[in-house]
Amino acid sequence: MTTESITKDSNPIWRNAAFCMAAAGLLSLLIPMGFGLFGHDAGIQISWITQFTQAVAEGNPYPRWMSDGFYGFGSPAFYFYPPLIFYIASIFRVLGISSSLGLFHVTTIFFTVLSFFSSFLVLKQIVGNKTAAFWGAAIYCLIPYRFADMYLRNAFSEHAAFAFFPIVLLPIYLIASKQQLHWKRILFPAAIGWGFLLITNIPSAIVAAYSVVIFALACRLYRKEYRMMILFYIAGSLVGLALSSFFLLPIGQLQTAISSANYLNMNYYSYQLTGYALIDAFHVLQSNTFYISLLIVFILTLIALWQIREKIKYIRQCEMIEQAEIFILCFAVLIQIPYISKPLWLFLPMMRMLQFTWRWDIWITFFLSVFVARGITRSKHLQKSYGFIMLVAASTLALVSVYTFNIRKLPELDYPKIANMMATEYLPHNITLPGDSVIGLLSEHRKDPLIQRKNGSVAFRLIDDKALLTSFNASVSSEKGEITFRRTYFPTWRLADDRGIDYPIRPDSLGRIVATLPNGNRNYVLKIIKINEEKIGSWISCFAAFGLLGLFMFTTFWRNSKDS
Questions:
Q1: Average pLDDT over residues 346-374
Q2: Dihedral sign (CA 114, 359, 283, 396)
Q3: CA angle, 420 then 426 then 428, to 5°
Q4: Could you tell me if 353 and 204 are in contact, meaning their C-beta atoms sit under 8 angstroms apart?
Q5: Is 451 in contact with 483 (CB distance < 8 Å)?
Q6: DSSP per residue over 183-245, as a string?
Q7: Containing H/E element for 560?
Q8: Over 60: is that where the pLDDT of 525 sits?
Q9: How far is residue 285's CA from residue 402's CA, in Å, rounded to a whole number?
Q10: Is the dihedral of CA 436, 437, 441, 444 positive or negative?
Q11: φ, ψ for residue 454 (rounded to 5)?
Q12: Where are the alpha helices (DSSP H) in 219-354?
């Protein structure tokens, strides 16, 4: 169907759908800007935005160490947490937005708009129609899960990952469509999509990896006629992996240094309400939100059961691509019932790294956008597609209304206090107490001197104290002396004297740095250093970026010279 026939045949319902979607879009983006953040990750996101953007503004190109974390003891958060969305927030700070809450909202809107354009471009190539792609992209951005993800959970980086998820899937769709493709249309999207997704949100990247593999197998892309394009996709994915190696490479070396029991690890028994992750994700702003979510899921389940008998025959008649989409959709729904699907989490590689089952809703969201866009191009599904659009808009408006009603009754949160109580997975791995207990004890010690005597006869004088460097003079009159720093232990800390001799450091029961100094009077420096994996990863990323850019310029020049 052409764009003209779509709008002509659906008038006036498309106008009603447009009005509903416009209202849902404006209200879901603008209303939260009038309030603070109250989701599970509110404190930690505000804290990280503040520290990361400030460090970048002060000239640190990659601030991996958050010096204000854990009540000023410091946290190695960005050795493990993807940095892309915080770099974007840093750009907005340079442009004049100084409020951390303002940076959160503006960056959120930026990635919402970016996800609209990326999904629009991808859907346009999948369905071949601009109008249908527009409506599909609108669904992708404004479906209720997106609002819940951002403002009920404050899942900052997962929200940003929606901008790159469609790009990763596009080459697989193009290969499965049996088009005559140039290898550039496969390699470059794969490299860019994977490169950005991996430095945005690792769990979303795992969902994307499983989606690609399942989709490719379901479409039988292992057959001989597809192998060359699949090889180009693999090559592009490896380039994307190389682009993100400045972030990924140090993780393998340093992950054992933290309390990784909760870091990228599925907690099967965290769903205390219903055992269904999607419903529990909405249960943040009192019971009203929960019951609305429960009602929506219940109604949609009844509709699905009512339709399934009629749709089995239809599914068998669908094209292979659509069958693959439906198969992944069923898998994504099944995997969100942790008490039933627990064996899958234990058996499938990397699946436990998703942390939460609802992360599979990124695929469901993308599927629904493709489903709507494809339905609009088919005359017999046109009315139903616009009806579904209005249903989604109404659901989002209902969620925004409940959010607005409840959030006005909540007290203002103490963001720094909440931030310091969270992210216990970044404490040293060999602490002897539970993470929450350690955080409480660190709070009691937050006003301690920067350096304290632990054992022996030690006198010291502080020379300089910066976020990543502390220099001091120590005089040890006994055989040896032990001192404790008000700093969280991490392997990238290095203690050396003015002659360049290194001294071992270790964590105590609270994760603080403890050092043993020899007899004598010396000047010492405790500072964060770059490990080899950081340097190697940065070089690999640079070579990959310049190589990809050079390849693009060369192929563009070659094509232009052939055309001339």
A1: 83
A2: positive
A3: 115
A4: no
A5: yes
A6: THHHHHHHHHHHHHHHTT-HHHHHHHHHHHHHHHHHTTTTSGGGHHHHHHHHHHHHHHHHHTH
A7: helix 532-563
A8: yes
A9: 8
A10: positive
A11: -110, -50
A12: 227-243, 245-254, 277-282, 286-317, 320-334, 338-347
SS3 174: helix
Q: What's the per-residue H, E or C state across 361-415?
A: HHHHHHHHHHHHHHHHCCHHHHHHHHHHHHHHHHHHHHHHHHHHHHHCCCCCCCH
pLDDT band (50, 70, 90) for residue 540: very high
Q: Distance (Å, rounded) from C-alpha 539 to C-alpha 543?
A: 6
- Tens digits of per-residue pLDDT, 205-241? 999 999 999 888 888 888 888 889 999 999 999 999 9
Hey, which residues does 258 pair with through a beta bridge? 428
Maximum Cα interatomic distance, the chain, rounded to a whole number of Å: 91
Q: Which of 560, 450, 425 is nearest to 44 (CA)?
A: 425
Query: Which tokens belong to 17?
Result: 């759908």
Closest CA to 115 of 165, 149, 154: 165
DSSP string, 96-146: T---HHHHHHHHHHHHHHHHHHHHHHHHHHHH--HHHHHHHHHHHHHSHHH
Cα four-point dihedral sign 4, 8, 13, 15: positive
CA dist list (Å): 312 to 26, 283, 323, 326: 38, 34, 11, 11
Distance CA 449, CA 137 (A): 54
Alpha helices in 143-183 (DSSP H): 144-147, 156-161, 165-176
Measured distance CA(83)–CA(156) in Å, rounded:
11
DSSP symbol at 258: B
Determine the average pLDDT of the residues in 527-534.
94
Angle at 348 between CA 160 and CA 247, to 5 degrees: 40
- Predicted confidence (pLDDT) per residue in 268-298, tens digit: 444 444 444 445 555 544 445 545 555 555 5
**Statement: the pTM of the whole predicted model exceeds 0.85:** yes
